[in-house]
Amino acid sequence: MPELPFIQVLVENLAREIEGHTIVSVRVPSPAIVKTFDPPVSALAGRRIERVRRIGKLIVSDLSDDLLLVMHLMRDGRLQIARAGSAARKGRASPAPKPMAFGLFLEGGDELRVNEAGPKKRAGVYVLRAQDAASSEPLAGLGPDPLSEQFTADVLARAVQAEPGQLKRAITQQRHVVGIGNAFADEILWEAKLSPFAPAARLSSDEVARLYA
User: Fold this and answer.
1) Does CATH number 2.40.50.140 belong to domain 142-201?
2) In tens digits, what is the pLDDT along the chain, a chain of 213 residues?
3) Long-range pairs of 39-42 with CB within 8 A, sequence gap ≥ 24
4) Does the domain made of 4-135 have the CATH classification 3.40.47.10?
């Protein structure tokens, strides 16, 4: 599953491509990818993409009129910008390629696609009202982000020491710290010279400092 460093770079690149563009229409070849029903995905049409940002492993687009589009790529989801072709410019969508699950046609004819080629269809697309987003899936209950200014050693200490299990589990639980998965956790613990099997609740202040660094 893509983790924080990959998603951060992806979001920065995606922002350069789609921020400021208006969504013309939506197509959903794989309806199971849409995890919300109110507002409907049709509500995305006509909305301007004001900002693209990351919350943990989630890709969040702030749209005009207080709507959010949240994408969770999970293990096999991938984003693609399909450049405008003659059919797109004339308003006729070409047949969806087999791995495509969700697409946004943008002004100018480009299409942002979510492709999912794996056998397990776990990627998700969520349309949320901004005022409800913090209490709605998949944003509800998320912990602090390691790249935010609010993420301090004290915040980390409280997060991991609230976990009764092992340290690796503590830092990969999204309710404690967002964006960290198995691979990234292994690297963090290696650099900090900490065992993944250490009891999280018993970390010393020195061990927390090494983990935070």
Assistant:
1) no
2) 678 889 999 999 999 999 999 999 999 999 999 999 999 999 999 999 999 999 999 999 999 999 999 999 998 999 999 988 745 444 455 667 778 999 999 998 999 999 998 778 899 999 999 999 999 999 999 988 998 888 999 999 988 888 889 999 999 999 888 999 898 999 999 999 999 999 999 999 999 999 998
3) 39/67, 39/127, 39/128, 39/129, 40/127, 41/125, 41/127
4) no
How many residues are there in the chain?
A: 213
User: Which contiguous run of DSSP H or E holds residue 190?
Assistant: helix 182-192
Domain parsing of the chain, residue ranges = 4-135, 142-201
- Per the CB < 8 A criterion, the answer to whether 102 and 28 are in contact is yes
pTM of the complete model? 0.88
DSSP one-letter code for 97: P
> Where are the alpha helices (H) located in 46-181, listed in sequence order?
86-89, 153-161, 167-172
CA distances to 27, 65, 77, 136, 144 from 131, rounded to whole Å, are: 26, 11, 27, 10, 20
3-state secondary structure of 86: helix
